[in-house]
């Protein structure tokens, strides 16, 4: 049984304000962490 999820976001707009808002929102809920180690069973 898989213990992970994968999601993607596609924004078909080039408006700087909108892209910034999505960037802030995504970072809040799914922070980017360099070197994060994956948990393996």
Overview of this protein structure:
This protein is an all-alpha fold. Helices cover 34% and strands 0% of the residues. The model has no long low-confidence stretch (mean pLDDT 76).
Order of helices and strands: H
**How many extended strands?**
0
Largest β-sheet summary: none
Helix content: 25-40%
Shape: elongated
Whole-number average pLDDT? 76
> Which strand-content bin applies to the residues?
under 5%
- Rg of Cα set: 14 Å
Given the structure, what is the number of helices? 1
Residue ranges: pLDDT <50 for 5 or more in a row? none
Spatial separation of the terminal alpha carbons: 10 Å
- Computed structural class: mainly alpha
Give a quick rundown of the structure.
The protein is mostly helical and 41 residues long.
Key terms:
41 residues, mainly alpha, 34% helix
Helix-strand layout with pairing:
Blueprint: H1 16-29
